[in-house]
Specification:
Blueprint: H1 2-13, H2 17-22, E1 25-30, E2 33-38, E3 45-47, E4 52-53, H3 55-73, E5 80-89, E6 99-108, E7 112-120, E8 129-137, H4 149-153, E9 170-171, H5 180-185, E10 188-190, E11 197-200, E12 207-209, E13 214-215, H6 217-236, E14 241-251, E15 260-269, E16 273-281, E17 288-299
Antiparallel strand pairs: 1-2, 2-6, 3-4, 5-8, 5-14, 6-7, 7-8, 9-10, 10-11, 11-15, 12-13, 14-17, 15-16, 16-17
Length: 304
């Protein structure tokens, strides 16, 4: 079994830039099941005040482990891609321990695979998050036209005043505050953008599919959830601090190796819970690569 795991880590992890960069490793595999571990690193912190992990780090691990479980369920090797992913956060996670995810592909149809995953640290019986994902099977492995490809590839007329323009400037997401995971991904706020806009500069280490190439789905989710959290923090103006309850994302197009952008809408703010929607794109907001939504618990500054 050790030889099998070493071979899988060599083929599945070491050849994937983002998984190699974060140090993820496959720890177990069996029919329809896969387990992975994310080594503890200070860069995964998303709440420095309370020393808690950023949920984006958990999402990257869950997305990877769920994909591993799908591969373990297939009788013949075939390409596949994440359709959607939902994360429910059960407990706070600290930076002092490795994070593990056990995933199970519990239903496999001709076109779609359905997967559940549990994310935990020291105690398998005390999960810190649960994941639910679906994957589209037999996705072509090479570059391909997607739905609306003609619209995507058609050049925009220079005289089109309505064409979306990439913001020129950028600035830290929160003045005077350093969030390790946000700094690790390189997320910035677009200067003077209206509405509020966040940007994820492209770097090779963000690639999850080196064959297309395409950004790691977990990175897109982590970026979207970060944008939602930061947008809510700015909206609340420090009155309360948001903590993720759940987050779900639908993938619409591959994230190409270029800069990505995200805009958010606060749908509702209650006394204890807020709902935020996110739209993430590259070429323009009319061609989103993902849409997402999340519920956030609103806590006082000193509340755990």
């Amino acid at each position: 079994m050790n030889a099998i795991l070493e071979d899988l880590n060599r083929k599945f992890v070491s050849r994937t830039p983002h998984m190699r960069e974060i140090g993820a490793r496959i720890t177990a595999v069996s029919p329809s099941r896969g387990s992975m571990t994310l080594p503890a690193r200070p860069e995964w912190v998303g709440d420095p005040l309370r020393a808690q992990l950023h949920p984006g780090a958990l999402t990257v691990l869950a997305d990877s482990a769920c994909g591993l479980a799908v591969g373990a369920a297939l009788k013949e090797r075939a390409p596949y891609a994440t359709l959607d992913l939902r994360m429910d956060y059960l407990r706070a996670a600290g930076p002092e321990a490795d994070v593990h995810c056990d995933a199970h592909c519990f239903r496999l149809t001709r076109n779609v695979a359905f997967v559940r995953g549990e994310v935990y640290q020291a105690d398998r019986e005390q999960p810190i998050a649960v994941a639910q994902a679906s994957f589209m099977l037999s996705t072509p492995g090479g570059k391909r036209p997607a739905a609306g490809a003609a619209a995507e590839s058609a050049p925009r007329a220079d005289s089109d005043d309505n064409a979306w323009q990439v913001p020129m400037g950028s600035e830290p997401v929160l003045a005077g505050v350093t969030i390790p995971y946000v700094e690790y991904l390189g997320i910035r706020a677009a200067s003077d953008a209206e509405p509020q806009l966040f940007r994820l500069p492209y770097r090779e280490m963000l690639i999850g599919n080196p064959h297309l190439p395409a950004l790691h789905g977990g990175v897109i989710a982590g970026f979207s959830e970060t944008a939602a959290t930061l947008h809510l923090i700015r909206t609340l103006r420090g009155a309360k601090f948001p903590k993720s309850i759940d987050f779900s994302i639908d993938y619409l197009r591959s994230g190409r190796p270029v800069e990505s952008f995200a805009a958010c809408e606060v749908v509702r703010v209650g006394s204890r819970v807020a709902l935020v929607q996110v739209r993430c794109w590259q070429k323009g907001p009319e061609l989103p690569i993902a849409v997402a939504r999340g519920h956030f618990l609103l806590t006082a500054a000193g509340e755990a």
